[in-house]
Amino acid sequence: MSALRGLRDLVFVLLATMTVLFFLLRLTGDPAVVLAGDGASPAQVEAIRAEYGFDEPLLVQYAVYAGKLLTLDFGTSLADGTPALEKALISFPATLFLAVMALSVNLLISLPAGLWLGQARSGIARRTVRGIITVMQGFPGFVIALLMINAFAVGLEWLPTVGFGGPATWILPTLSVVSFLAPKLIRVIEANTYAALTSNYVRTAKASGAPDNVILWRHVAPNALLGAIALVGAEFAFMLTGLVVIETIFAWPGIGWLLVQSTLSLDFPVVQAVVFLMVVGVFATNALAEHLQAALDPRIGNARGAD
């Protein structure tokens, strides 16, 4: 039943999103004018409108669009004639790769940092780290990206600034994404760690003589990370849709960069295909996070089963 409800919800979200997107795109401009180019006559522009069906009434255009959407036919790119969904699918792995890289580095940084902050006594080191995290929370990711480009690419000339050519080109985009995701995850893991350290099962482990490191990594860390699964899933879903600025800054050939280029050129079919992939990716990520959390925490699984 839960799978059927999930499928029903996905269909509803897709229908609502793609419908709103269709009408919003028609407010941005006339693709026929862009395709015709500068100096085109009104007759040439009208001919292009007729060729692509833009001369039909808006509701007729929507009916055709909705019918094709049922078969995942988004049409062809107005820019180069490539099938729109194929063009989006070609760009999606680059975004997925960046998201996985950023998620991995985020966990490698946030888990030990959050565990340390949650168990550390108040002192200069703890206050300094917390102050840095607070400051980083106030910086948008694109600001960090520009600062790192200025420092490591322009100033020191250690790293390239654009492209998807190899490990050296992965560093700045990954760190830029991590810079605005890690502070929140560190805070959540810190709070979960503090709560776990004051729980009965940790007191029992301490009373039985278990070493502090064993208690921290065997009992505290899994529970601290379990409480952060929902946030990790939300951050990963965000990366599948919210890396538009980062991908544009670094000319990263993902769906965010493709979305910007297609929007600027009024390439409606490609924009619609990209947004479709984003919605499906976000929905699948959130569903996976929910099922993983339910599988690891019987209390959540039982509560959802009762629903």
UniProtKB/TrEMBL annotation:
- What PROSITE patterns does the record point to? ABC_TM1 (PS50928)
Q: Name one Pfam family in it.
A: BPD_transp_1_N
Instruction: Show which residues constitute the signal peptide.
Output: none
Q: Where are the transmembrane segments?
A: 96-117, 129-152, 158-182, 225-250, 270-289
Q: Which UniProt keywords apply?
A: Cell membrane, Membrane, Transmembrane, Transmembrane helix, Transport
Q: How does it sit in the membrane?
A: Multi-pass membrane protein
Q: Does the keyword Transmembrane helix apply?
A: yes
Q: Which residues form a coiled coil?
A: none
SUPFAM superfamilies referenced in this protein's UniProt entry, alphabetically:
MetI-like (SSF161098)
InterPro entries assigned:
BPD_transp_1_N (IPR045621), MetI-like (IPR000515), MetI-like_sf (IPR035906)
ABC transmembrane type-1 domain residues: 92-289
PANTHER family assigned to the protein according to its UniProt record, in alphabetical order: DIPEPTIDE TRANSPORT SYSTEM PERMEASE PROTEIN DPPB-RELATED (PTHR43163:SF6)
Record-stated family:
Belongs to the binding-protein-dependent transport system permease family.
Q: Report the protein name in the record.
A: Glutathione ABC transporter permease
Organism, per UniProt? Glycocaulis albus
